Write the structure tokens for this entry.
Amino acid sequence: MFAKKEEIIEYFKTGIKNTRNFKIGVEHEKFLFNKNNNKRIDYLKIKEMFSALMEFGWNPVFEKENIVALNKGGRNITLEPGNQIELSGDKLNNMHEACAESQNYLFELKQVTKKLNMNIVSAGFDPISKLKEIPNNPKQRYKLMTQDMPLGGELSLDMMYRTCGTQLNIDFNSEEDFVKKFKIVNSIVPIAISLFANSSIVEKKNSNYLSYRSKVWQSTSRAGLPKLFLENLNFEKYADFVINFPILFLKHNDQYISGRKYIFKDFMEGKIDEIDNRLPTQEDLATHLSTIFTENRLKKYIEIRSMDSCGWECLCAGPAFNIGMLYGNLDEVHELVSKWDKDKIINAYLEAPKKGFNTQLMGKDLYYWSSILLNLARKGLENRDILNKKGNNETVFLKHLQKVIDNKITNADHMISKFSKNENLDELYDK
């Protein structure tokens, strides 16, 4: 039970790992459409798809009588509010393994979607559908979220039903190591938004944003980039943040209950009548931590969350970029970002979804900083020197980003130019 702040701090400390045991966890989300009418798939179609994936050795996960996820070893396929699907990968040793895992998953997914006459879209925001057109599913928590989330952010439902991202989970070997890594990942959010922008088309029109997904997340309740995260934030300060953060929902006797009247402190003080004034368990804390939707967050690991979902050519690039900096070249990157002004980072964060590389930070544009960080990431991956069977190190996964920097053209720019030529929806689907 968690009744004291110190117990939450201890929970974070249990995430500390020996550097040799550092892992990489990649999560990525996809939109699925019916090929015959270009509409998002409904829950019935999800069930068909899950059933077909089970032939590849995936096992079903149920909520009451409804299938809501699949697992296989340390991997999970979960269902998002608008029937987007997310692969949460296993904890792996290096980028070669992580990229091979994503490749296997996409191979299986493509077999199944082809068989069921479905299209995949790898973008940060649904480029086709209006919000009201998107079918929901029977996961209990999403009903509560649909009801409560808009109370604190005007685009919260768009976040739930119309966005997809790529996330990366990384480890730390001490509290000091966490502090450095968390400072970096939050300071570079504007760069991540610009570099991985891939959501420029909305409702079949140019949105005039490069990452409309990021714009939406900035207008979502429980989300954003708190200035606190740009400081040297230790476990205690993060615990204070968590304790005073509103509760989204509570699970009690297999039922989900709205938590909107409470903060987590109320829970720790046994002040929630609806759940018989019980204290939070480890599961309750884990749920609360996973419903803090900031750009990055702490669990027993750091979760990096600012990248738009993207296609195969870039899927491994985002994780490799971060791993190079955070596992291979931490001190040099930390020294660089420590000189940046907090207010200027926040301003750049707010401007980046629209302006992309043209956003200013510390007197330079984000194109300049992207190029600098890419070189530091490359140096970090060279330092790691982890080779695949062909004798290549992990820098091979940076090729896409090098191309973006060389041409100054992001996935979002490609999406605009391809689609704008003839407004053919096929240009938006994965090939």
Q: What stands out?
A: Residues 95-115 form the longest helix (21 residues).
